[in-house]
Amino acid sequence: QQQVKQSPQSLIVQKGGISIINCAYENTAFDYFPWYQQFPGKGPALLIAIRPDVSEKKEGRFTISFNKSAKQFSLHIMDSQPGDSATYFCAASMLAGTYKYIFGTGTRLKVLA
Amino acid sequence: ETGVTQSPTHLIKTRGQQVTLRCSSQSGHNTVSWYQQALGQGPQFIFQYYREEENGRGNFPPRFSGLQFPNYSSELNVNALELDDSALYLCASSLFSSGNTGELFFGEGSRLTVL
Questions:
Q1: Cβ distance of A89 and B108 shorter than 8 Å
Q2: DSSP label at residue A55
Q3: Would strands B44-50 and B53-57 be described as parallel, antiparallel, or unpaired?
Q4: Which tens digits make up the pLDDT trace of B72-100?
């Protein structure tokens, strides 16, 4: 019930292409879904986040699509660039009480120049 | 605005030893969370501190303990180290208040190797 399943484990995309990473959750009490980007040797950095009252959120080249009935959400990176090469983690949390985040297992993205 | 800083960045211990990791939270934040990130895995919640008290704990044994100080900085202590404790330990700070999104700001972590 507390798991967040993330796929794929790794992804190779050509420069300019679209990168898509998917996550699924079980606990319907989750009400905050952030995506984090992590470069080697660095801590995770918040990329974009969504709440379940909207189906899509866009910030620059990054878009989250959210399907509440399917309990799934995805990150789309448009016009992928070599600088986007990093590991991406989805997460889920409940805003009330402890801000405990449940993270997915990560997707290692490589964008080829 | 100062971000989350952690020390030390790397350390090596032997099995059975004890370790203390330190974290200074981002300016204006009052809550500190600790996460363990094993190689190739997502971060796993250890515990959170708010107002110098533990405010939630993940599935970690009691030999993982912590402190939060009046200036909101924090320590993570691990006793009786085991080989499986080898990981990147991440500190994250946030502002706990009504209506806040609970956005976590992570430090760069402390890489612990247990031999």
A1: no
A2: S
A3: antiparallel
A4: 899 999 999 999 999 999 999 988 876 56
CB nearest A32 (choices: B42, B92, B102): B102
Of residues B40, B45, B90, nearest to A43 (C-beta): B90
Question: Can you give the length of chain A in residues?
Answer: 113
What distance in Å separates residue A20's CA from the closest CA in chain B? 18
Question: Is A73's pLDDT higher than 90?
Answer: yes
Strands (E), chain A: 4-7, 10-14, 19-25, 33-38, 45-50, 56-59, 62-67, 72-77, 86-93, 101-103, 107-112
Q: What is the rounded CA–CA span in Å between residue A88 and residue B33?
A: 20
Task: Please give the Cα distance from A81 to A36 (Å, whole number).
Answer: 17
Q: Which residues of B touch A46 (CB under 8 A)?
A: 103-105
